[in-house]
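Appendix C reproduces, verbatim, an entry submitted by the partner laboratory led by Prof. M.T., so that reviewers can inspect both the input and the predicted structure.
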Amino acid sequence: MRDFTSVDAKANFFKALAHPTRLRIVEMLADEELCVCVLLESFPIDMSTLSRHLAVLKNAGVVTCDKRGKNVYYRLACPCLAKIFDCLNGSGFNACCE
């Protein structure tokens, strides 16, 4: 687990989320661990662009991955992000942010 005690580490974490494609990746991973092949099918981008987005998320400590055979699977390193998205996506936003 990455050390997020410094303000710089926290800033890098949130900067990694500051792109629509990366946010969508995180939303998808909030539900389940996914193979890169599944992620690639979900976006109108090429593999090198997806790899760069995943690298940004991984380097910031947002996601982790492991290789199983020829496939690489990604998951959230911080599953509590799913709660933030739930809060922002629905009526929960008003309840938790008033």
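The first helix runs from residue 7 to 16. Additional entries are available on request from the coordinating office.
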